[in-house]
TrEMBL record:
PANTHER family: MIXED LINEAGE PROTEIN KINASE (PTHR22974), TOUSLED-LIKE KINASE, ISOFORM G (PTHR22974:SF23). Keywords: ATP-binding, Kinase, Nucleotide-binding, Serine/threonine-protein kinase, Transferase. Residues 1-112 form the Protein kinase domain. This is Protein kinase domain-containing protein.
Length: 132
């Protein structure tokens, strides 16, 4: 990983918990920061709200420790999403950096690589459609 060199970089709603760590040594970050951000964006696209601190300002998020304390993500009942999609978001938003996939692993996730099978046309109905 690399060191986080600037304080307050990025939009807080999309930064993972490790970016809010304080202390003498800056936290080590990796592409897993981007995986977290993608999880937040996907959640927001599906549910129309951010998973953590939706109604808070950036200053409130920083001072309340909202993201630093974001141990798990909760899902609204609507819209309903597949278990695979829910699992993908949960993996992207894993609290511990060590438990979160990197970008390559996330991109290879079964939910990301699933291709819906194309239905095979029924030969009889295809022939009937041609006669019309």
């Amino acid at each position: 990983g690399m060191e986080l060199t600037s304080q307050g970089a990025g939009t807080y709603w999309y930064l993972p918990p490790e970016c809010f760590e304080t202390g003498p040594a800056p936290p080590k970050i990796s592409s897993k920061v981007d995986t977290w951000s993608c999880g937040v964006i996907l959640y927001q696209m599906l549910f129309g709200r951010r998973p953590f601190g939706h109604d808070l300002s950036q200053e409130q998020i920083l001072h309340s420790g909202t993201i630093r304390n974001a141990q798990s993500v909760e899902f609204p009942a609507k819209p309903s999403i597949s278990a695979e999609c829910r699992g993908f978001i949960q993996r992207c938003l894993a609290y511990r950096q060590a438990d979160r996939p990197d970008v390559s692993t996330a991109a290879a996730d079964p939910w990301m690589t699933y291709v819906k099978p194309v239905p095979t046309p029924n030969p009889a109905s295809a022939a009937a459609a041609e006669r019309e």
